[in-house]
Amino acid sequence: MREYTLLSAGSVVAVVVLERLWRTGLFRRPAYWVTLAISGFFMVLVNGWLTKLSAPIVLYSAEEVSGVRFPFDIPVEDYGFGFALVTLALLRWERVASKAPERRYPRP
Amino acid sequence: MDRFQYLWLLAACLVVTAPLELVFGARVWRRPRHLARALLVPFVAFAAWDALAVARSHWTWNPRYVTGARVGRLPVEELAFFLVIPVCALLTYDAFSRHFRGERAPVWERLARARATRRR
Fold first, then answer.
1. How many CB atoms sit inside 10 A of residue B58's CB?
2. Which residues of chain A neighbour B61 with C-beta distances below 8 Å?
3. What is the ipTM score, two decimals?
4. Helices (H) and strands (E) in chain B, counts
5. CB contact under 8 A, B85 and A56
6. Which of A17, A75, B13, B54 could bridge across to B73 with cysteines, CB 3.0–4.6 Å?
7. Tens-digit pLDDT profile for chain B (120 aa)?
8. Chain B interface, best mutation among A83, A93, A107, by max B CB count within 10 A
9. pTM for the whole thing?
C-alpha cells in the first residue's frame, strides 16, 4: 500500500541522516542549493518526458503511489527519489574529497 | 528510433552538461577515480531500490520506448540513469562550488578581455 510513497519519504529522511552522520556540511553550501534548484528544473523536463501519460516511458502501479502528479504527470514521489539520488551522490563526492583533497594547482 | 528514446534522453543530458566541464571549470570528468568512487554508493543503492520496486510492482517500463536489454530485472537505461543524473548534478555542483570559492574559469577572463577590446 503506497509503498513507493513511503520509500520516497523514507529516502529523504535517510539521506538527511547520512549527511549528519558524515558531517559533510553539504547543506550549508550555497552551491548545493543552487545545484538542487537547477537539477529540479531539469528534472521536471526530463522526468516530465519520462512519465507523461500520453506516451509514458515509465508506468506506475496505482496502488503504490499517492496519485498526486505535478507538474505535468510527474508523480510527487519522484521528487523524493530524485532528491535522494542527487544528494547522496553529492554527499559521496564531498566525502571522497575530504579523504583525498585535490592538489592546490591541478594539472589542466 | 522509439526504442532508444530513453537512451537519447540520457545522452541529451550529457551533451547539455558538457559545457560545465569544457567551458565553466567543473573538474568532474577529469577526475575519473574520484567520480567513480563517488558514484558507486548511489548506483548500488538505487539499483537495489529499483530492483525492489520491480519485484513489488511499483513501476514498469513501456516496451515501446526501451531497448529491451536488461541486467537482471533492470533495463540498461535505468542503470545508465543512475550514472548520468548524478554526473550532471556533480558537474553543476562542482562548477558552482569552484565559482563561489573564487576559482574563476578562464572563460570569464576571456569574456572580460573581449569586452574590453571591443571596437566602438
1. 22
2. 57-59
3. 0.93
4. 4, 3
5. no
6. B54
7. 889 999 999 999 999 999 999 999 999 999 999 999 999 999 999 999 999 999 999 999 999 999 999 999 999 999 999 999 999 999 999 999 999 999 999 999 999 999 998 865
8. A93
9. 0.93
